[in-house]
Design brief:
Rossmann fold; 2 domains; elongated; kinase; Glyc_kinase_flavodox-like_fold
Length: 380
């Protein structure tokens, strides 16, 4: 029997279900199930992201306008990307230009992949005259310390012979001179904020190479080469700016792009989900709500450390609104997810009739999960 509607509304704010559902589709499917169970209840869809892949889509779904931009992908081949703009703010997703998904044929290029296209996205945003740029880090295919990004913005990186460095982290071992050139002053009137959900430094056992290099295809000697390159990069950037930020929390994010953003773009770093919820207007959307439903592909220990569903749960709690979750898989105990603030969690794997259904029938099962949550939590 459909749930009896009451005053208030429901906010559906999931992150993407990686590999199966984009955030907007997950929100639409969960919302459809809630509407089926409670047809008279207002349901607001607000897909979210934690600053990584899906950041651009979340901004567009929240009413930002997409501006197409053709930029260099991680291997230098052109890719079609976009930035999201609303009022005085532009949102940039690093993965749009330098993400793993942008690698031709999915073939990794750990030593030569570059963040150059990210700088092109930033340059386009500056040309639009915005006063604030938000850069979502995550999903990077490169470990170049953001060197390519700043080259695209006018910095010159030269070797001992005076030649401009080739793209990629390996080339940084030959770096002899950093000339910031037009980069200096180009962002004077622009506030740059980085949305990031990791606190890794640039170098060392918790740094960009050691922790994230293998995800980008680096192994064995490659890891040594990249660490040497980033070390040289940190030394010369420190000499050029008078500040050593190699140990700053988040400097190792996105192959070290966090370091370049902090040291050379004057960026401020904020927790990704916190910043995105602010940009997306979550506080306004949740005001007066009866329930918030969030979710992601896997609710696990990582979720509890700054991932989108935990951030949504915390924000909902501050507003005094109950929060539930839909997950592709659930790897937390009931005590763990209750301590995180969730009143109910439904996993698609528990709704699946056959192995693999939670992937091949994810959209259908997400809708069923929404219907069951409504019946459980919204009925009087």
């Amino acid at each position: 029997m459909p749930a009896t509607p009451a005053q208030g509304h429901v906010v559906v704010a999931p992150d993407k279900f990686k590999g199966t559902l984009e955030g907007a589709e997950a929100a639409a499917r969960i919302a459809a199930g809630i509407r089926r169970a409670a047809p008279a209840l207002e349901v607001r869809e607000l897909p979210v992201a934690d600053g990584g892949e899906g950041t651009l889509a979340a901004a567009l779904a929240a009413g930002f306008t997409g501006v197409p931009v053709k930029v260099a992908g991680p291997t230098g081949l052109p890719v079609d990307a976009a930035i999201a703009v609303r009022d005085d703010t532009a949102v940039i997703e690093l993965a749009q230009a330098a993400g793993l998904a942008r690698l031709p044929g999915g073939r990794t290029a750990p030593l030569t992949a570059s963040s150059y296209g990210v700088g092109q996205l930033i340059g386009r945003a500056v040309a639009l005259g915005v006063g604030r740029i938000v850069i979502g880090l995550g999903g990077s295919a490169c470990t170049d310390g953001g060197a390519g990004m700043v080259q695209a913005l006018g910095a010159s990186l030269r070797d001992a012979d005076g030649a401009e460095l080739a793209p990629g982290g390996a080339a940084l071992r030959r770096l002899a001179a950093v000339d910031l050139g037009p980069l200096v002053g180009s962002l004077t009137d622009v506030e740059v904020t980085v949305a990031c959900d990791v606190d890794n430094p640039l170098l060392g056992p918790r740094g960009a190479t050691a922790v994230y290099g293998p995800q980008k295809g680096a192994e064995g000697e490659d890891l040594v080469v990249l660490e040497e390159g980033l070390t040289r990069w940190a030394e010369l950037v420190g000499a050029a700016t008078g500040r050593d930020l190699r140990d700053a929390p988040g400097a190792g994010a996105a192959g070290g792009a966090g370091f370049a953003a902090l040291a050379l773009l004057g960026a401020t770093m904020r927790p990704g989900i916190e910043l995105l919820l602010e940009l997306l207007g979550f506080d306004g959307a949740v005001r007066g709500a009866r329930l918030v439903v969030t979710g992601e592909g896997c609710l696990d220990a990582q979720t509890l450390h700054g991932k989108a569903p935990a951030g949504v749960a915390a924000a909902a709690a501050r507003a005094g609104v109950r929060v539930a979750a839909v997950a592709g898989r659930l790897e937390l105990s009931k005590d763990e997810w209750r301590r995180a603030g969730f009143v109910s969690v439904i996993a698609l794997t528990d709704l699946a009739q056959r192995p693999g259904d939670s992937i091949t029938r994810a959209a259908e099962l997400a809708e069923l999960a929404g219907e069951r949550l409504a019946a459980e939590l919204l009925a009087r």
